[in-house]
Amino acid sequence: MPMHKRESLIYTVLMCFTMVLWMSMYNVALHMGTLNMEVIREGWLGFPLAYVCAMCLDWLLVSKIAKGFAFRFLVKPENSTMKKVIAVSCCMVVPMVIFMSLYGGLEACVKSGAWNMLPIIWLTNIPKNFIMALPFQLLIAGPLVRKIFRTAFPVGTVLLEAESGNPV
Fold this sequence. Notes:
The chain has 168 residues and is mainly α. Helix content is 84%, strand content 0%.
């Protein structure tokens, strides 16, 4: 787990990139009903805006709420690191799926012009996204990003580099 704000930002950039890229491809494939190069192209083209939206949501709103909920109701500071990671990850997935499913619904309405369908699109996207996002976060993205993060930034090195004046 990140130890301070600077590490948290780096970790969030990596995790958001991984989750938004995967979920973008997943959602495009769901809507197109297939997985081919067109799906990858469409998912990649829609990725930058979705990534910015997810980063802002994560950094400014969701992480504070998720960590607050996790540490108030699910885990204590003395619990194992893995228990804290799993609790916070689960608490992050729920609001991110709700918000980003709304984002996907808005994107679909912009393309189709069918604004009256927004509530239906949003509400049907939530369970579809949740059943993909939670297992992907817990089994693939979380372990992968934690491994990459700690390989690139061993514990304590982010602050050491910042104090010495070297760019991170």
